[in-house]
Amino acid sequence: MVDELVLLLHALLVRHRALSIENSQLMEQLRLLVCERASLLRQVRPPSCPVPFPETFNGESARLPEFIVQTTSYMLVNENRFCNDAMKVAFLISLLTGEAEEWVVPYIEMDSPILGDYRAFVDEMKQCFGWDDDEEDEDDEEDDY
Fold this sequence. Notes:
Elements: H1 2-43, H2 64-77, H3 85-94, H4 98-109, H5 118-129, H6 133-144
GO biological process, one term: cellular response to muramyl dipeptide
GO cellular component, one term: nucleolus
Organism: Cavia porcellus (Guinea pig)
């Protein structure tokens, strides 16, 4: 009886490992497809779009607010193309260059969950590249006095 349970447990562990490997491969394929789609979307600009295609972002802190406004506006008017957080994050990543592109590489290499969470990704960008929402809130409070 114990031997049968040990064999069954071993078989389950082997199957679990195989499914984990297959899942990792499928996630990698999905990530590549999302990035490829974002790249293709960047190349296709519909003539009727009232919002210009966003400029790239190289990590310059002073440009981060402008970059976020441009990308958010573009995604809002093209919401059918950005149907989930992963697509939105992939779109932002496709526009990163220089220091900003170097910053995102570790997240991609470790397949970070942040790549599927648009708000968390933008918050991480703000933290890294120097956009502090608290400072803005303090400025607003000072204006109230």
